[in-house]
Specification:
The chain is mostly beta strands. Helices cover 0% and strands 60% of the residues.
């Protein structure tokens, strides 16, 4: 079973920066995609950024140019650099991994979440 452990997050003023990190552990076959989602109070969980194993990245439109996702395939880690933070970026950030045992078996794995709070 794969586990995701997040670190980082916290309280920052608007315009500030934070860095989130996530490490996968356990019995890992292949992590096809790793990335981050977030959930603000009263809202649904939404995609922030994802990176495939080939390095291709997708970002939510509102974070493009401010957030940068990076990934280390050898260490099974993914990080998210958050710059120029806005109050609307506040929420719980969840690490996500698409774990594949083979072509047909896929597990969606989630971290426990880390709080990001941006004050105005």
């Amino acid at each position: 079973q794969v586990q995701l452990i997040e670190s980082g997050g916290g309280l920052v003023e608007a315009g500030g920066s934070l860095r989130l990190s996530c490490a996968a552990s356990g019995t890992i076959w292949y992590l096809a995609t790793m990335g981050w989602y977030r959930q603000a109070p009263g809202n649904q969980r939404e995609l922030v950024a994802l990176m495939a194993s080939d390095g291709n990245a997708n970002y939510q439109h509102s974070v493009k140019g401010r957030f940068t996702i990076s990934r280390d395939g050898h260490k099974n880690t993914v990080s998210l650099q958050l710059n120029s933070l806005k109050p609307e970026d506040t929420g719980i950030y969840y690490c996500y991994a698409e774990h594949r045992r083979n072509l047909y078996q896929k597990d969606d794995v989630w971290g426990q979440g880390t709080q990001v709070t941006v004050s105005s």
